[in-house]
Structure formats: C-alpha cells, structure tokens
Specification:
15 strands; single chain; globular; alpha/beta
Length: about 375
C-alpha cells in the first residue's frame, strides 16, 4: 500500500481538484476530517474534505486547526503519550462505565455519555478517576466514525489527566478496517476516499495519528472482578492456556498481517477469527451451560465477563449476571444504554439518564 503521507504536500493549505472519478448526480457535498498524517521528520499534517474540496494544513504545536472552509469538525490536540501501551489489569477502581458498538453514531454516544455525567456539556471528561471501557466497533455502518474516534482520543488524554482511564478495546470491525476489509463503510467515507484518491484503510495506517493510537490499544482488559472484550471468551481459550497479556501482544503484533497469513498459523487463526475474543458469540446461542461459564470465570479469577458484538435492545445480564452483554444497538442511531459498575452494584444506564439495577435475564435466543 502506498503511504498517503508520502504523496501529499504538508507545508500549505491548498484546495485540490476532485478525483478523476466523477461523483454521482445525487451526491451531496461532504465535509470530513481531520485525517492526521505523520511525516518522515515526525511532524504532522492534516487532510480535510471541505464541501468536496481536499485541503491540507500543517499541524503546529501539536494543535490541529480546521481550515476556514470547514466547519464543526474536530480540532484535536495531539498527545504522544496516548500511544504508550497501558497496563491490561487494574484493581481498586470505584466506578466503571462500559458501552460498545457505537458504529459511527456520534450523537447517540454523546447523548448517552452526557446523560450519565461521563462527559460534560462541552464534551469533556467529567468522570473523575473512573474508568470508561469501549469494547470495540467504533468503525463502519454509521456516518461519523472519525468524530467518534477523535472524541475518544480527547477523552483518553483527559481521563488520564484526571486520574481516570479510557480503555479502547479492539473489535472485529477495527480489525476488519485495519486489514483492508471495507465492506461496511458508510457512503460518506466512500466519497472521502474518492476525493483523497486513496483507500479507507490508508486513512488509519501506521503513518497516521489515529492509526498509531489504535494499534497501541488492547483487545482484552481486566478491571476489578470483570473481564472486558468485544466478542467473548470461548472454551477453546482454556485449552490454549493463554494469558490476557499474551493475547494483547499477539493482536498488536499481527493486526497488519493479511487474512491468509493469519489463517496459516493455528494460534492466530483462533485469536483473530470465529472462536477468538473479537468474534465469538457462544453466550447467545445456548451452546454453553453455567458450568462452562464458571470455568471461564475461574480461569481469569473474575465474576463477570462483559462483551459487545451481539446486538441486544438493552444491557443484558445472562447466567446470573456472570455474562453481561452491552451491545445495546447504538448502531441503529436511535438510542442506547450503558453499563455502570461499582464494587457493590451493576447498573443499567438508560438513554435518558435514568438507571436501574441490572437484573439477570433468561438466555437470549438467536
């Protein structure tokens, strides 16, 4: 793949003509960005689509400023520390919030976080020393993936400064996009990539700020007595005797391998595909009994496994709340829920800010 940073100018803000491929007559002008690229000398430049015009701007003093032709797009402050690899096990955390599968539905995510005091009216971190877990699938389907990513990037910095933590876990759609599987991107991004004359995955490659940030993140994290990941832990994990840290290292090391390479390696084929923690759905098809779940919990020394990936209409507790499903269908762009956890309580957080204790439900049907 040709690096976009290697072919784009970065010293001036200059509108460029549209791609040679004409846009359809029904097309509505797109404004999108920023896409921040890291130059060979470790400086940065940003690319924007402003009403269907491609504009490049330099990044000065690590502050990304939108050009006058663009409106209401993120203007992030870059922070190299966000790309340092964090711990993947934490204890003594008093407040946890978790949500999943936002899929580019920026407004729903913001409304939900504001309703529960996780962020304030200006979209800044307001959760103090609490920990927020996003269990993957920010990418694909919806129209504001880039806005979601830059807000989470900002919250990552602000949470740490406040003594808290943002845990951004890799889902199967992050995995798909970084590997070039672009079947589910929104038409807005098809226009962006057409105007930028590149592929969508190149906007998040290893020479980009968001791409490096994503590649530093974990796939699994353990906080207090709960294990979080996107899809789930299958019984095959027990046969392989993997640790959380081993799995996280393997994901980071191989996220840019192509699918054929991964499938040739038995362990990587397990980790990256159907029985691995980004794709597994076995808690929702009656394939496991409670004794199977207890073995998984005992292996990790936890009381709860928290997952997204398999869509529900609410935050759902299964197997006496040993499995907690938090994909509440935010991807539909209408509403959603989140999970609040304290040492004493498991709580459903509703879209309007109301809360109620999480009650265990019968096993969800396919």
């Amino acid at each position: 793949m040709t690096s976009l940073a290697s072919v784009l100018p970065h010293a001036s803000a200059t509108p460029l003509a549209n791609s040679s491929s004409p846009l359809t007559p029904q097309h509505q002008a797109v404004t999108d960005g920023p896409y921040v690229f890291i130059n060979p000398d470790n400086t940065h430049h940003a690319s924007w689509i402003c009403a269907d015009q491609l504009i490049h701007t330099p990044v000065e003093s690590l502050k990304v400023m939108q050009p006058p032709a663009c409106q209401n797009l993120p203007e992030p402050s870059l922070n190299a520390d966000l790309k340092l690899i964090s711990a993947d096990t934490y204890t003594g955390v008093n407040n946890i919030v978790a949500l999943s599968d936002v899929h580019g539905q920026f407004d729903v995510m913001v409304q939900l976080l504001q309703a529960h005091g996780i962020i304030d009216e200006q979209r800044h971190w307001a959760f103090g020393d609490g920990h927020m877990v996003m269990t993957g699938d920010m990418f694909d389907r919806g129209p504001q993936v880039n806005e979601v990513l830059w807000l989470l990037y900002q919250l990552d910095s602000e949470a740490t400064a406040a003594g808290g933590k943002l845990h951004l876990l890799m889902g199967n759609h992050e995995q798909m996009v970084l590997m070039g599987d672009l079947r589910y991107i929104h038409p807005r991004y098809q226009t962006t990539t057409q105007l930028m004359n590149t592929s969508y995955d190149a906007l998040y490659d290893q020479d980009t700020e968001i791409g490096q940030w994503l590649r530093s993140k974990h796939t699994l994290v353990k906080i207090n007595n709960a294990l979080f990941m996107h899809g789930g832990i299958s019984p095959e994990w027990l046969e392989r005797q993997l640790s959380i840290s081993q799995a996280n290292r393997l994901y980071r090391r191989h996220i840019d391998d192509d699918k054929a390479q991964l499938k040739q390696d038995e362990l990587l084929n397990f980790l990256f595909f159907s029985n691995g923690p980004t794709w597994y759905r076995g808690y929702f098809n009656q394939s496991l009994n409670e004794a199977d779940i207890d073995k998984l919990l005992a292996y990790f020394d936890v009381d709860h496994i928290v997952v997204g990936h398999t869509s529900q209409t609410e935050v759902l507790g299964l197997y006496h709340n040993k499995i907690i499903a938090i994909d509440s269908s935010i991807k539909r762009g209408l509403s959603g829920e989140l999970l609040l956890m304290t040492p004493e309580q498991l709580i459903r957080g509703h879209y309007n800010g109301d809360t109620q204790p999480l009650q265990a439900q019968p096993l969800a049907q396919k």
